[in-house]
Amino acid sequence: MKKLSRRAALLGVGGAAGWGLSGFLRADLPTYAGTNRLVSPTGEKILNDASGLSATPIQKHLHVSDSDQALVDRIRSEIAEARAAGHCLNVGAARHSMGAQSIPREGTAITFSNAGIEVDSANQTFRSHAGARWFDVITTLDPKGWSPKVMQSNHDFGLAATYSVNAHGWPVPFGPMGSTVRSLRMLLASGELVTCSPTQNSDLFNLGMGGYGLIGVVVDIEVTMVKNSRLIPSFDLMNASDFTAKFKKAIEDPAVKMAYGRLNVERESFFQKALLITYRETDDQEKLPAAGGSGWMAHAASRIYRAQLGNETFKSFRWWNETRVGPKLSGGDVTRNSLINEPVVTLDDRDPNRTDILHEYFVGFDVFDSFLDACREVIPSSYQEFLNVTLRYVAQDGQSVLSYAQVPRIGAVMSFSQELTHRGESDQVRMTRELIDRIVEIGGAYYLPYRPHATLDQLKKAYPRAEEFAHAKRQLDPELILRNNFWDQYLGQL
Ligand SMILES: Cc1cc2nc3c(=O)[nH]c(=O)nc-3n(C[C@H](O)[C@H](O)[C@H](O)COP(=O)(O)OP(=O)(O)OC[C@H]3O[C@@H](n4cnc5c(N)ncnc54)[C@H](O)[C@@H]3O)c2cc1C
């Protein structure tokens, strides 16, 4: 049995692994096939996401590329049809969320794909169809000298989807992407089209930001942009215990435009060393080169990255390469746009027996050492293959109701390679819950677009306004037309 490739998952083709973990599962999910392998149900009426582990029955799946009034009419009519049939509806884009957060169980799934981006240089914004992907945005902005202010580290994701998970990036010193949205138009389940911004219908704006498509269907969006620029990196290797102070200093330095950190991942010396990479503008900002795709360095790094699997020596080699060789080879200048113009596929494992699973945790600067201790105690003793962690800065987000950064936070994006077996899955569930407990205990939060392994109680602790969100959702959409697994498994239980 073949695992879904990311692209196949993205197109909604093929199936996914079933789950056999009684106690963690809904009774109607596809289950155990009699071996230790996870089995993927497939079919026209099954939709999956990038995890390959979210196979969900749906009524139909439409790809919609209309825009403006035609799009509004189309979505209104689909909502009316879903209501008449008594089922739900949900819109997705690249479907890289990993726990069916973009999939309506037994409902109408709509995938938006339409670019149509207009640049407004005078106002430093661009207006776009909600389904545009970041690669569309970069392709349009780059020749005009502009760059997205905040987006994920890869360019495959949808714009409205990015607002709907309130994603963050690594340009500094910014908060999540929702803070860069000037305004948007959203179709509510009632059929009403509303314009929302920080000052107009701000309650809806703040609910929809990080609201996982449960508040309304975003049809178009106006987003702030910044000047593209030529940047040069600096590399600083240190003990992990020194990272917070140096990272904070870098974030406060106005010359630093992009920054991230890394930690070593060998089991024996897990998270003892840190590398801080900062980018500053060069003196020469004339004639910037066009944003390239992944260079040979990214492809070579991806090979070394994969060779780490089950190989502690290669984990050490990668750390040496990244901290000693990389800085010598990649000392040249690059542009802001070329750094974020990176496809997810560069990382693809191409292994039918495994799947890449991400986690992300957000912790305050003052508790970062406790966070490191928790990770050292929980992760290396698990059955999971831990491949990478990237540390990012996230400024305070006081807008989004489901905010994961009530104070400025360090975001730790973790990448695991998970075996597609029942033992791999049950160990992943156990380890995730243990990590979340430890992180919530120190006032942190976990990120919601990944695997739905948290308990309801953990969700409530990490997102103290979850009940308020669920209440507002019920007021806006009493028939619960806009729904996905995030509602079914979590918010709908509150
Ligand atoms: C390799 C990889 C790297 C990542 N890097 C980062 C990162 O750097 N920073 C970060 O913050 N996150 C990161 N993520 C997480 C990522 O931001 C989310 O998974 C996001 O959902 C991906 O966008 P998408 O287009 O795949 O969204 P989808 O999974 O298709 O949708 C996500 C949510 O948005 C809703 N939605 C989509 N379109 C609309 C619409 N038009 N109106 C209303 N709701 C809508 C959906 O209902 C769903 O709930 C990464 C994920 C992967 C797999």
In brief:
This protein has an eight-stranded antiparallel β-sheet with strand order 15-12-14-13-17-18-16-19, sandwiched between helices. With 494 residues, it is an alpha+beta fold.
SSE inventory with pairings:
Layout: H1 6-11, E1 46-47, E2 56-57, E3 60-64, H2 68-85, E4 89-92, E5 108-112, E6 118-120, E7 125-129, H3 134-141, E8 146-148, H4 159-165, E9 181-187, E10 193-196, H5 202-208, E11 217-227, E12 230-239, H6 243-252, E13 256-263, E14 273-281, H7 296-307, H8 312-329, E15 334-335, H9 336-340, E16 354-364, H10 368-378, E17 385-394, E18 409-419, H11 422-441, E19 445-446, H12 456-462, H13 466-476, H14 485-489
Parallel strand pairs: 3-5, 4-5
Antiparallel strand pairs: 1-2, 6-7, 7-11, 8-11, 9-10, 9-11, 12-14, 12-15, 13-14, 13-17, 16-18, 16-19, 17-18
Helix pairs in contact: 7-8, 10-11
